[in-house]
């Protein structure tokens, strides 16, 4: 190649250089420069993948919270229909209060909060109680697999001897987000009725006709 280059005249070298530059630019124009669009598209896809990875990693980090919520739900309370959850929640903490001698003076309006897996019923109660009654009440709320938990609590004495306490308790109960409805549970619990009687087959008896006799003795 060097020998060929040395044999060329200066004018020929200039033309060969110009032609080489034109070929180089043309090749880049048709084969290299269009790939720059693919580069930007690939960069955008990599950015989206990194963003999704960060979201998935953050969601996986919430796994212990989700597992804790699932563990707090009693199997007996998993099939409470959404329209019955507020009533079930209020009946539950009121029954426990009566059993343990806690006087509920007022309650706030229950509120509902939902996530991907559970629905939470939440309310704040104001109660008048003694120390032992309050401890027994709190223990009963969390016993027997109940999903009711006390999110916050504040106490103040009512009398100088502190025999009675005024308690503000925020109660929360969790339910599965898509429980079976009451109608479905009622239908599932209903006893099956007797099987329907099979239809009695009807026997049809055909009366034979003496066609042969009619052929032998035609009507005049």
SS-based class: alpha+beta
Percentage of residues in strands: 15-25%
**Largest sheet data:** 5 strands, antiparallel
Assembly level? single chain
Counting DSSP H or I runs of 4 or more residues, the number of helices is 8
Residue runs with pLDDT of under 50 for 5 or more positions: 179-193, 199-220
Going by CATH, the architecture of the domain at 76-176 would be 2-Layer Sandwich
For the record, what is the CATH homologous superfamily label of the domain at 76-176? Ribosomal protein S6/Translation elongation factor EF1B
On the 0 to 100 scale, the average pLDDT is 75
Question: Could you tell me how far the N terminus lies from the C terminus, measured between alpha carbons in angstroms?
Answer: 127 Å
Strand-helix topology:
Elements: H1 2-7, H2 10-32, H3 35-61, H4 63-72, H5 82-99, E1 103-107, E2 111-114, E3 118-129, H6 131-142, E4 148-157, E5 165-176, H7 182-189, H8 211-216
Antiparallel strand pairs: 1-3, 2-3, 3-5, 4-5
Molecular structure report:
The chain has 220 residues and is an alpha+beta fold. Among the domains are: 9-58; 76-176, 2-Layer Sandwich (Alpha-Beta Plaits), CATH 3.30.70. The protein is 50% helix and 20% strand. The chain is built from eight helices and five strands, in the order αααααβββαββαα. Strands 1, 2, 3, 4 and 5 form a five-stranded antiparallel beta sheet that branches.
Keywords:
8 helices; five-stranded antiparallel beta sheet; 220 residues; alpha+beta; 20% strand; Alpha-Beta Plaits
Q: In summary, what is this structure?
A:
The longest helix has 27 residues, at 35-61. The protein starts with a helix and ends with a helix. It has helices at residues 2-7, 10-32, 35-61, 63-72, 82-99, 131-142, 182-189, 211-216; strands spanning 103-107, 111-114, 118-129, 148-157, 165-176.
């Amino acid at each position: 190649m060097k020998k060929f280059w040395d044999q060329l005249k200066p004018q020929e070298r200039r033309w060969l250089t110009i032609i080489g530059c034109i070929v180089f630019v043309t090749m880049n124009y048709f084969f290299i420069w269009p790939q720059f669009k693919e580069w930007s598209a690939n960069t955008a896809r990599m950015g989206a993948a990194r963003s999704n990875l960060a979201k998935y990693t953050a969601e996986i980090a919430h796994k212990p919270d989700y597992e804790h919520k699932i563990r707090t739900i009693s199997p007996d309370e998993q099939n409470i229909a959404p329209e019955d959850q507020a009533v079930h929640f209020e009946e539950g903490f009121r029954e426990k209060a009566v059993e343990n001698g806690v006087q509920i003076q007022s309650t706030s309006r229950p509120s509902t909060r939902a996530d991907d897996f559970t629905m939470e019923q939440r309310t704040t109660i104001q109660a008048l109680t003694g120390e032992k009654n309050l401890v027994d009440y709190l223990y009963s709320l969390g016993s027997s697999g109940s999903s009711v938990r006390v999110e916050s609590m504040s106490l103040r004495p009512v009398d100088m001897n502190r025999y009675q306490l005024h308690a503000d308790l925020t109660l929360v109960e969790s339910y599965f987000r898509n429980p079976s409805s009451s109608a479905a549970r009622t239908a599932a619990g209903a006893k099956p009725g007797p099987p329907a009687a099979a239809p009695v087959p009807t026997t049809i008896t055909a009366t034979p006709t003496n066609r042969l006799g009619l052929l032998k003795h035609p009507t005049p």
